[in-house]
Hints:
Elements: E1 11-14, H1 21-29, E2 35-40, E3 47-54, H2 64-71, E4 82-89, E5 95-99, E6 122-128, E7 143-144, E8 153-161, H3 164-173, H4 183-198, H5 208-218, E9 221-229, E10 234-238, E11 247-251, E12 255-259, E13 270-274, E14 279-283, E15 290-294, E16 304-305, H6 306-312, E17 318-319, E18 321-322, H7 323-342, E19 351-355, H8 361-373, E20 378-380, E21 384-386, H9 397-407, E22 408-410, E23 419-424, H10 431-442, E24 447-452, H11 474-479, H12 484-490, H13 498-511, E25 516-519, H14 522-528, H15 532-535, E26 536-537, H16 539-542, H17 548-562
Parallel strand pairs: 2-6, 16-26, 19-20, 19-23, 23-24, 24-25
Antiparallel strand pairs: 1-5, 2-4, 3-6, 3-12, 4-5, 4-6, 7-8, 8-9, 9-10, 10-14, 11-12, 11-13, 14-15, 17-18, 21-22
Amino acid sequence: xxxxxxxxxxxxxxxxxxxxxxxxxxxxxxxxxxxxxxxxxxxxxxxxxxxxxxxxxxxxxxxxxxxxxxxxxxxxxxxxxxxxxxxxxxxxxxxxxxxxxxxxxxxxxxxxxxxxxxxxxxxxxxxxxxxxxxxxxxxxxxxxxxxxxxxxxxxxxxxxxxxxxxxxxxxxxxxxxxxxxxxxxxxxxxxxxxxxxxxxxxxxxxxxxxxxxxxxxxxxxxxxxxxxxxxxxxxxxxxxxxxxxxxxxxxxxxxxxxxxxxxxxxxxxxxxxxxxxxxxxxxxxxxxxxxxxxxxxxxxxxxxxxxxxxxxxxxxxxxxxxxxxxxxxxxxxxxxxxxxxxxxxxxxxxxxxxxxxxxxxxxxxxxxxxxxxxxxxxxxxxxxxxxxxxxxxxxxxxxxxxxxxxxxxxxxxxxxxxxxxxxxxxxxxxxxxxxxxxxxxxxxxxxxxxxxxxxxxxxxxxxxxxxxxxxxxxxxxxxxxxxxxxxxxxxxxxxxxxxxxxxxxxxxxxxxxxxxxxxxxxxxxxxxxxxxxxxxxxxxxxxxxxxxxxxxxxxxxxxxxxxxxxxxxxxxx
Length: 573
């Protein structure tokens, strides 16, 4: 069973106040109607969802808990900040629980016999990373609308609304209020408003196909969401742009499964597929009937965020080939790029190939194999370790820097007089790589080279990693100091000339105290991605946003950045 000891780490909150998990469980055991459980773990930019529905026809001895325990740890890369829980029972209130423990802490061994008869029918889950938009209790998912009966709505969101500020202002003008500042609450308010105006006030049942068609027309962003209504119906929604994945499986033993990545289904038998962009799956809470409906514009094709393949997604997730294979192949390509540069290094000591913990490993493995095959004297060893698992990629700048200083340490291996090749999937702001470089140099390393598994990140990434402004990116920090002509050449972004890319690499290397930096050229990246140009949103590297509204916002951001610099207007495309 899931960990349920409230004294250790679970705070239970219900509409009427705090209650014990034990009392909740006994109450569920006495119910004969369908039970729904929602787990939620949220961050706008890095998070994941998973859902389980036990069909009435199933004769499996497995429970929805067993399925969650199988699925959630496989999505651990999507968040380490904890999860929330909401339990729904017909003719009973929805009760909520949250935990600060990462999903991988859930184990199948933690089973209590007194809960053996507790067999809920449905569960949806959301694993989250810390966010600078989650500053108090009201901002933690799942979010609900504080209504009773069939008007009660609860939502968990994976993704972000790019036009959140405009939508929030619209609702405020109409008299709606907000408890927090999350996009999940905002999306819930939009859904509630349409339900009220088109259905509830007329005594009509909600037409979920029409409801989400209107929502899909209104939101700009990367959205996958799980909605639970007051009648126990579960709706899985993926908006038209398809930037956030949402997978589906019907197992042979009678479960319906939902997850942000298909790695969650590994080891299970059944038929799996993805929920298409601009579609919902509606599961009837009483009968288990599952309907697939199109709610979006058929002209839109899936543009999965590039970070899913490069960083955010589990290595075992497959999109024509596994992310692990893609990342390894990128490492091999990087090895061929840097081999000539390393050949000029003086000294007989071997190079140490290392990676940034948790995500850089496959890149480093491929790079090491490539260098070794070419005859280089290299050793594969991790020289950087972490004190804790919390990500430092997103959040308030001052808090991030403090976490970076605390997070990383030199592994026990002696690095004195070593030349170290650090491999990472991206270089975003430069503060983490600078801190790690100086840490290794202070430990006696002779030099630190950085090899990056992606091109320079040049765009505010509204749709992937929660980067809303450009001036925090290391590319733009060094760009401001370049001569005017070089600044102009740099604005070719993914079409930048190799010579200009070398200048950018060397300038960034100086800024983080590294010996060299090597980026993966854009065309090499595209050749190694299974989906290529057509199936991946490459806007972080191209400045070509996946939506017109996003492009307009990005252009405004760019114009603001360069407005105060002596720069010819013709340089801006």
